[in-house]
Amino acid sequence: MVVVKDRKDIESRDVSCAKEGCRDKAISLSEFCWEHIPNKEKYKEEIIEAVLEKKLKRFNLHKAVLNDVELARADFREANLTQTNLASTNLFDTDFSNADLVGADLSGCDLTGADLSGADLTKADLSGARLWHADLSGAKLVEANLSAADFWQARLCDARLWRADISKSLSLSKKSFQCKEKRFFTNYRVYEDGYVAAEETYRNLKRYFISEGRYDDASWASFKEKTMEKIRLRKAWDMKYIPMAIMGLLCGYGERPQRIILSSSFIIIAYAAIFFLLKSITASASNAFSFNFGDYIYYSVVTFTTLGYGDIIPKTSTIFRLIAVSEAFLGAFLMGLFIFTLARKYSAR
Ligand SMILES: [Zn+2]
């Protein structure tokens, strides 16, 4: 076996396996790939010691089988752990930031407090893993097996969960996706640059939250799903973008009832301004009097709510009547939409 004298030596190592005809790279602390190491038990002891004493950096442990061992607080930053078997390993507080864990077996691991930020966990098996307080921000979990993985207090901002199996995951919530950057509003999101994958991810999250009875979180996921759909329609020049954008603006795709109150207030004031500028109203009683802007607001509200007291009426002109009628239509539509959105948001789905 090759004895590595200094850290630099291993960091720049790019040695092929010593076995003739093998095209794999030699793994850390050995001149062979895992498959061709003669004494695997002895190697296992040596590598575990090297990991725990932090003798090396950027390990290459491709395909190695190191399951059911103690590796707490190990330094696996930028390590190559592709297809490595670490099942049932104690990886408490281990640093996996930017590590390559494609296809790795981490099932049943204790990853409490582990740093998995930026790690590539594509097709990794995390079933039954404990990820309490783990940092998975920016991690790639595409097609990962996350069934019975426990995400209590884990951070998943900007994580890619496309086609990951989350249906049986534990302790996921909207809060898991909280991003830390300082902004006016707290941001909750998965990785959104690939908007098609993000749309599907949010749809999966919505289903998950509904099955868990977390309707507020489902509402967030649904809003995000529709936002991604809107981006997709816009990029495809699809005409469905227009009603989508309007619904987003009016009621947050049925998830934001407070937006309807805002848009209703805006419409009432806008119509009052139009009536005011066109001087389009008159008192129904013959005694003429002058209107102030408050009267225009009052008339606009009475029209919007389709109350129609009739103390103030549009002047006899087709155009003035049409404007008033259009406001009544909008009012009836928005009030219906408001009830629908409230019921949708606050009742069990
Ligand atoms: Zn080999």
Please provide a written account of the structure:
By secondary structure, this protein is mainly α. Helix content is about 35%, strand content about 0%. It contains eight helices and two strands. The protein has helices at about 5-10, 40-50, 195-210, 215-235, 240-250, 255-280, 295-305, 320-345; strands at about 280-285, 310-315. The longest helix is centred in the C-terminal third of the chain and has 29 residues, at about 320-345. The chain starts with 6 loop residues before the first helix and ends with a helix. The model is unreliable at about 1-10 (pLDDT under 50). The structure holds zinc ion. The site of zinc ion has 8 residues, from loops.
List its salient traits.
37% helix; 349 residues; binds zinc ion; single chain; two-stranded antiparallel sheet; Pectate Lyase C-like; disordered N terminus; 4 domains; mainly alpha
